[in-house]
Amino acid sequence: MKNYICETCGVQYDCSIEAPDRCMICEEERQFVSVEGQTWTTLDAMVNEGVYKNVFDIEEEGVHAISIEPSFGIGQTAYLIQDQNFCLLWDCITYIDQETLKRVEELGGIDAIALSHPHYYSTQVEWAEAFNAPIYIHEDDRKWVTRPSERIIFWSGESLQLKQGLTLHRMGGHFKGGTILEWQNGNNHKGILFTGDIIRIVADRDWVSFMYSYPNFIPLPSSTVERVADRVKDFKFTRLYDAFHRVISEEAELKVQKSAHRYIGALNGTLFDT
């Protein structure tokens, strides 16, 4: 019995004798099946290959970015957030080995794991078991969990405070249970928002975007973007990290609002005439 991992999205499945016939994450319209077809691996195989490693980057006080080299699956970045003796892993990556465990332990371990949406569930159960940590997923995305675990806590409602100053907010949009993290104590108490790609920083770091599907270029309706932007107005932040190691360092709250205004204008046909 093995826990197979989809090589395209990097999400791990429950134990089975044979590899699954399909990846429900990739076959859904927000993702895609590789043009080379559905392929599978396992964490043991990845470790034994000796090809992959996790790279830790210190972004600022209390924030460590963790990414896989060479890139695997979707290629997202996870963040280890350290706040007053509480360590939170925000989003997850597929690869984990003994070197990773040692490095994370040196940084204080993991007290909890929180996920923005199903594309980044990856090997979340492996991480949770390694550090004896709970996993927080919004109940609206329950059906997308490919490896069930008693460590998963399906929270409900619009917000959940994990610790004073660390709050999860359900935003919807990219996924119904799409979640972002507000860290009020970050950036010298000016606040940081971790958004996965519920809100994604674009090539021009002064702007963000909001999409139903990024690889398939399916936009969100203007009413959803307006709702997300209105919710964000209530959060405390001046800096924003997305899932792909991109950062808006200053005035992030203003840049999210002007990006939403531009996006809505484009959808409604008032931004340009072409």
TrEMBL record:
The organism that produces this protein has a lineage beginning with: Bacteria, Bacillati, Bacillota, Bacilli, Bacillales
Membrane-spanning ranges: none
Domain (Metallo-beta-lactamase) spans: 75-239
- Extent of the signal sequence: none
> Which superkingdom, per the lineage?
Bacteria
| CDD domains given in the database record | YmaE-like_MBL-fold
InterPro entries attached to this UniProt entry: Metallo-B-lactamas, RibonucZ/Hydroxyglut_hydro
Entry's PANTHER family? METALLO-BETA-LACTAMASE FAMILY PROTEIN (AFU_ORTHOLOGUE AFUA_5G12770) (PTHR36839)
What is the name of the protein in this document?
Glyoxylase-like metal-dependent hydrolase (Beta-lactamase superfamily II)
